[in-house]
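Re: the request from the purification team.
They wanted to know what the chain is likely to look like in 3D before they choose a buffer screen. I agreed to run a prediction and write the result into the notebook, where they can find it.
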Amino acid sequence: MSTFSGLNTAMTGLNAARLAMETAGNNLANVGTKGYTRQRADFASVGSLAHTGLLTSRNGVGQGVALTGIARLSDAHLEARVRGTSAFASQSDVRAEGLSNLEGVLREPGENGLSALLNDFWAGWEDVAGQPGATSPAAVLLERAKAVVDRISVSHTEISTQWGAQRQNLDTMASEVNAAATAISDLNGQIRSSLAAGGTPNALLDQRALLSDRIAELTGATVRESPDGTIDVLINGNALVSGNTVRPVEITGGLSMADGAAPTLQWAHRPGDSIGLESGRIAGVISLLAPANASGTGGALAESAKSLNTIAMELATRVNDVQSNGVTVEGLQGQDFFSFDPANPASSIKVIATGPKDLATGTAGGGALDGSNASAMAQLGKAKDGPDALWANMVIKIGVATKSEAQQAVSTAVSAASAQAAQYSVSAVSLDEENVALLAHQHAFQGAARVMTAVDEMLDTLINRTGLVGR
């Protein structure tokens, strides 16, 4: 081996140390970059030159070091685990948030809750029973009745508004899924071309992984890798992205809670072919927006609105029935106290009584000061199947569901955080590790430079100083 080859060996060491320091520097520069995966410069020793001939017996010395590639330190198993746990955590999170917002509509317990307003309403009838025909107790009763119907109506409107906001959010998320899918298909093409040309598309791989994680969070999608470097993104086993092909999705179904049609996610190129989601944020929203059913297991929002309708109808019907069984202070048969539209009781219920003459406080033949019917009216609040009991059952049902979903959200969030931590332990940038790597490669660079200096001095001695001894 020529002495000059020592310069080449030292040069490969210098290049290797420089590339390793640049890689560590790139890691440090991206320590705060979302989705960045730590990289590592991989090297291999360059073998010695082959020696031939009958008299060859000396073992060859290696020719230095060569870069074999810039490795992206990711783990496919951990990435799949992160996507799966994130999808379930997102589904539980959106359901917990939706139920918490629904619970806020109830305003229970508190003076503005329907239970307190109903109690005041029934107490108002007791006051009227003590003073039939008096203006003040009747006026107070009518104001309390209006407070009750206003609370029922406002609660129903707030639930409808929440339903509409969640429905609009579904369209936004579907658009985001399609946009991310299109970006992944473009990245698939770039990555495939780069790999075919011998490149290292690590930055493109990071971008693609970030997009696929977002799709998984929204839909519970899975990822399948192909030998050419591309990936397929699958929703419920069907390809959303396959190479450079994208199959967009869309949200169909009712646009308002009154439509009664369940929103669904389906393939845009196959109308009517709905996608059954098992996890993901979209699945959580769709479950909240499901229509009410006979068994009471429908979507939380629609079931609550249905319960409010039942409460409004029960309140109006029972009060009107007792009114019709009594007489006013003028001896006339009592007329309806409430009016409502049977198609939508909660939003349409109104107080139509206007004063003490409209209140059927007594019974036939009892006289003007008879308040027995008003007392009977006040007892409606204690009925086991009355509006108060129905409201209490509704509050309990929503409260239990909210607590259960909140606990589920915490549990799935812990699982997702654990998976994320495991992934970070492999792929995240460690400042300590990179600083140590910088120091090590810096010393390697200095060592290679010292070798080059030593070889240069040897060559100088051979070329310029040989034969000068003794002169």
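For the purification team: The chain has three domains: 5-52+61-73+429-465, 79-109+168-300, 116-155+305-395.
Please add any questions underneath this entry.
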